[in-house]
Design goal:
Layout: H1 9-14, H2 20-37, H3 40-48, H4 53-58, H5 64-67, H6 73-78, H7 84-88, H8 90-110, H9 120-149, H10 155-184, H11 196-219, H12 235-259, H13 270-291, H14 297-315, H15 317-329, H16 332-338, H17 341-347, H18 352-381, H19 383-407, H20 411-438, H21 445-464, H22 467-474, H23 476-485, H24 487-497
Length: 507
């Protein structure tokens, strides 16, 4: 959004009356609910059932779908679904498919008792993977719908409301589901210990909430399709492509978890090597399928290569590389610091109740407030100024944690630091999501945004994996000073892209 497109305060505040914002809030909650049902909530269920920790941690693999959703995101753009696409449209058809899959997977989890014996635990792991796949697919479709539903000027508000809904959905399926399970356990004669029926009812309640999202999808309007959003190949070709994606995913997982641990020696390059070689195995399989004429080469080019080529053609190679650098590094200070935040709180003497009360409850409220503020300011002043301000505030907030590390246990300073950090993070996230949304071409919304959203966490999460090592070597105070300094190159990248990354909504 060029700065010239900024609105007056009257126009900005009037934009909050847009009824589509309610749909964004509901869709955000729909995306947030499944996320913790395969993370912390499921882990609590399994541990309460007496499943050993090693088996519980394996269930986190179910969330790999969120990291690799860009692999099948092109299908969301290119592949028509039988009956659903014709009846409800390109986006709503896929959204109904994904939401029905989420509801079904949650119900299957609810019907499975992990301590029943036999293959129960294996079945539960499969259902968790299924939930991860459908939930990640829902994210892809909602992102595409959100971008296509409104003009470029509304993307900041849509992003902030969507993020707020997502956070609320996580609260419902996280803390909400745990409290619900504890309350209803006595109903089934279990005042303490493991109650499968309590967990079954809890997960069925989450499925019932997800059914409400189906109603929202039926009520919302289908966005206008782009002029060049066509399905250039026969449906059977896309069916083969879908099967190839499943086979490639199996090759990646098999190489990563079962082949590479015995081949790569332990070192700092172990994880990158596993990822690269596992991707190589998946790509090799795709190459073989193309050579065997199982996959159509033209279809692959249209589905996967054309969206990438479109981005470089629209912005030019040099500008596109600068934009991608900004996408990869923008969240670096925030994520690298966040990895050790809870450990830091414990190490300087805060107890779990204080951390939960300030970080999880008060911090959540400040994040949502920051998101609303960021969306409003983006609409008023334009995206790039708020993108710069968000990066500067996020880096500056890390200085407060360095101060806290120097001072030691101080509840007021902790509250102030968490308030500033979450407010800055919410503001920066709203601006950054609006920035990414406006970079996409509506003909390839799903795949381009899926690639952008994967890239924005790839480098920060990789560097964040070494946060503990850096804390051990530097100590907390110097570590937080380092994370604040990481914000300087991000600010330079924002300035570097200010003119070249013309944020616009392309038809």
């Amino acid at each position: 959004m060029p700065d010239s497109a900024a609105k007056s305060w009257r126009q900005t505040l009037a934009s909050w009356k847009n009824p589509a914002l309610l749909a964004m809030l509901a869709l955000g909650a729909s995306a947030g609910i499944p996320f913790l049902l395969i993370f912390s909530t499921l882990s609590v269920w399994l541990r309460e059932a007496g499943i050993e920790r090693g088996a519980v941690t394996f269930f986190s693999w179910a969330a790999l779908a969120y990291s690799f959703k860009f692999v099948w995101a092109p299908l969301v753009d290119a592949m028509p679904l039988p009956w659903l696409t014709k009846r409800f449209g390109r986006r709503r058809g896929w959204l109904l498919f994904a939401q029905m899959g989420v509801v079904a997977a949650i119900c299957l989890l609810a019907a499975t008792n992990p301590v029943k014996g036999g293959n129960a635990l294996i079945l539960m792991a499969f259902f968790a993977v299924l939930l991860g796949f459908f939930a990640a697919t829902q994210d892809v479709v909602i992102d595409a719908y959100r971008i296509e539903r409104g003009e470029a000027q509304m993307q900041a508000l849509f992003s902030s409301v969507y993020i707020a809904g997502y956070r609320l959905g996580m609260v419902i399926s996280g803390a909400g589901s745990l409290v619900f399970a504890q309350i209803i356990a006595p109903v089934f004669g279990q005042s303490g210990g493991y109650s499968f029926f309590a967990w079954r009812i809890t997960y069925l309640a989450m499925a019932a909430l997800m059914l409400l999202s189906l109603g929202v999808t039926l009520l919302i309007a289908e966005p206008e399709p782009a002029a060049n959003s066509r399905h250039p190949c026969p449906p059977s070709f896309y069916g083969r492509l879908l099967l190839a994606v499943v086979m490639a995913a199996a090759a990646f997982v098999g190489t990563f978890f079962f082949v590479m641990p015995s081949v790569v020696v332990a070192s700092v390059w172990r994880e990158p090597a596993r990822i690269v070689l596992s991707l190589g195995a998946a790509l090799l399989l795709v190459f073989v399928l193309v050579r065997c004429r199982f996959l159509n080469q033209r279809m692959l080019q249209e589905t996967y290569l054309r969206p990438i080529a479109d981005f470089f053609r629209n912005y030019g190679s040099q500008a596109a590389v600068k934009i991608l650098l900004l996408i990869c590094l923008y969240r670096l200070p925030d994520i690298v610091m966040g990895v050790v935040a809870n450990v830091f709180y414990l190490d300087i003497g805060f107890d779990k109740a204080e951390i939960a009360g300030i970080s999880k409850t008060f911090g959540l409220a400040m994040t949502i407030a920051g998101g609303f503020l960021g969306g409003t300011l983006c609409l008023r002043f334009g995206i790039m100024p708020i993108l710069f301000s968000g990066a500067a505030l996020a880096a500056a907030a890390n200085l407060l944690f360095a101060w806290l590390a120097h001072v030691g246990r101080d509840i007021l300073l902790l509250t102030f630091a968490i308030a500033a950090d979450n407010l800055a993070a919410g503001l920066a996230a709203a601006a950054f999501v609006a920035f990414l949304s406006s970079l996409t071409n509506r003909a390839f919304t799903a795949v381009q945004y899926a690639i952008f959203s994967s890239l924005m966490s790839l480098v920060p999460k990789f560097v964040g994996g070494y946060s503990g090592t850096m804390v051990t070597a530097l100590g907390y105070e110097r570590f937080f000073l380092l994370t604040a300094a990481l914000g300087l190159p991000v600010l330079l990248l924002v300035c570097w892209n200010w003119r070249t990354a013309t944020v616009r909504n392309k038809a």
